[in-house]
Structures are given as structure tokens and as C-alpha cells.
Amino acid sequence: DAGITQSPRYKITETGRQVTLMCHQTWSHSYMFWYRQDLGHGLRLIYYSAAADITDKGEVPDGYVVSRSKTENFPLTLESATRSQTSVYFCASKDAGLAGLDEQFFGPGTRLTVL
Amino acid sequence: RKEVEQDPGPFNVPEGATVAFNCTYSNSASQSFFWYRQDCRKEPKLLMSVYSSGNEDGRFTAQLNRASQYISLLIRDSKLSDSATYLCVGEGILTGGGNKLTFGTGTQLKVEL
């Protein structure tokens, strides 16, 4: 299916476990982003990628690792999950375009609970 | 101070009413602003961009006031289907350089019969 997808949609894990959230887009967009959304904080940028093999930190990168070996995939790994990482995670993508800050397209989100 | 601030609401309005949301931003160098809509437990989706000259799309009007650093969204003739959370989005600066979108926490709108 065309668009941007995330998996799993729901995940429950335990403190200390490694968790990988997957993001896949079919538009060949250059940019991909990972956000977390928590009550009272809005969406906060964790990591972003401007192209394959180019990634950079966002506002809240600690405890997360990303990679982008292929344009269409941008997995997010929690190396050792903590309860504070319980959140809803959204992946987004956008084309490079002429405007640097134009529309981002969001995936459906992954609800992660860390016990 | 948050980079983008919104009144969380909820705004409870009757169907057919006109409702306005305001949002303030702290980065005076910001050039790009948007309103996104987010339905309950769903992903955010772009509603409209915001320009200094104003931007109208059907029942929705967005306005930018640079002097006062606020953005507004006006919804006329509210529909039940307008019930959602409206996210104000501005431009922010990453600590490592580069630009990012900064999202407000959202304003919840409930349109009632």
C-alpha cells in the first residue's frame, strides 16, 4: 500500500529490553522523522534523517538509536527501554522540495508501554 | 517558555458556531507556520499553512501576526466533524543547527448538537 506505515501499532515491553519500532514509506521522500507525543508536551522530535545514511539528533534523542540504510525505512530502536519512554511514537516523512519546512506526512503511530 | 503555546481547551461549541483559536510563538525568526488537525488516537494531518497575508480554505481562515507573534485559526459554521485537536506548528531551531517543526500541545475542539 502506498503511504507511510508503522509497525507494530501497539507494543508492551519491560524495562531494560531492546525494542525496535519500524517505519516504512513508499513515496521515496528524502526526509524522515521520529516524534514522540506525550500529554502536556506535544510532539517532540527524537531523530530525523535527510537522506539514506544521514541521520541527526532532534530534541530528545537520549536512549534512542536510528539508522537509515534504505530511503524507505527508518527504524527507531530503544536500546534499553525505560518507563519514561512509554509514549505514542509517530514517524513522518516529507519530500525535500523547495521549502525546507513544508508538509510532513505522518504514520498511524505506535503506542508503546514500558512496564 | 515553550516555543509554541496554545490554550489546551476544550472549546465546547454548538454546531454552526464560529470558533477561534490563538497560538503564540517565541522564535521571532520563524518563517513557516501551519495548523495540523489530530483526531483522537490518530496521526496529525496538515490542515493549512499560515501566511502573513492570511489564508482561507472554505470555512477555515488562518492568520499570522508577526508583530505580536501569534497565529490564529478561525472556523466558521462549525460541523460535528470538526471535533478534533488542532495543533499549532511553527519553525524551530535544532541545537545542532538546521530547522525543525515545533508543535504546540494542541487545542481541543468539541462541536455539539
Written account of the structure:
- By secondary structure, chain A is mostly beta strands.
- Chain A is 0% helix and 50% strand.
- Chain A has no helices and eleven strands.
- In chain A, strands 2, 4, 5, 6, 9, 10 and 11 form a seven-stranded mixed beta sheet that branches. In chain A, strands 1-3-8-7 form a four-stranded antiparallel beta sheet, with no helix packed on it.
- In chain A, strand 4 and strand 5 form a beta hairpin.
- The radius of gyration of chain A is 13 Å and the shape is globular.
- The termini of chain A are far apart.
- The mean pLDDT of chain A is 92.
- Chain B has no helices and eleven strands.
- Chain B has strands at 4-6, 11-14, 19-25, 33-38, 44-50, 55-57, 60-65, 70-75, 84-93, 99-103, 107-112.
- In chain B, strands 2, 4, 5, 9, 10 and 11 form a six-stranded mixed beta sheet that branches.
- In chain B, strand 9 (84-93) and strand 10 form a beta hairpin.
- Chain B is globular and about 45 Å long.
- The interface between A and B is medium-sized, with 23 and 24 residues.
Note the topology.
The complex is a heterodimer of chains A (115) and B (113).
Chain A: E1 4-7, E2 10-13, E3 19-25, E4 31-38, E5 42-51, E6 54-57, E7 64-66, E8 76-78, E9 87-94, E10 105-106, E11 110-114
Chain B: E1 4-6, E2 11-14, E3 19-25, E4 33-38, E5 44-50, E6 55-57, E7 60-65, E8 70-75, E9 84-93, E10 99-103, E11 107-112
Overall, the morphology of chain B is globular
Helix content of chain A: under 10%
Straight-line distance between termini of chain A: 33 Å
Look at the helices and sheets of chain B and give the structural class.
mainly beta
Count, helices of chain A: 0
Rg of chain B, rounded, reads: 14 Å
Classification by helices and strands of chain A:
mainly beta
Low-pLDDT stretches of chain B are none
Q: Element order, helices and strands of chain B?
A: EEEEEEEEEEE
* N/C terminus separation of chain B: 37 Å
Q: Tell me the β content of chain B.
A: over 45%
Q: Give the SSE string of chain A.
A: EEEEEEEEEEE
Q: What's the total helix number of chain B?
A: 0
Gross morphology of chain A: globular
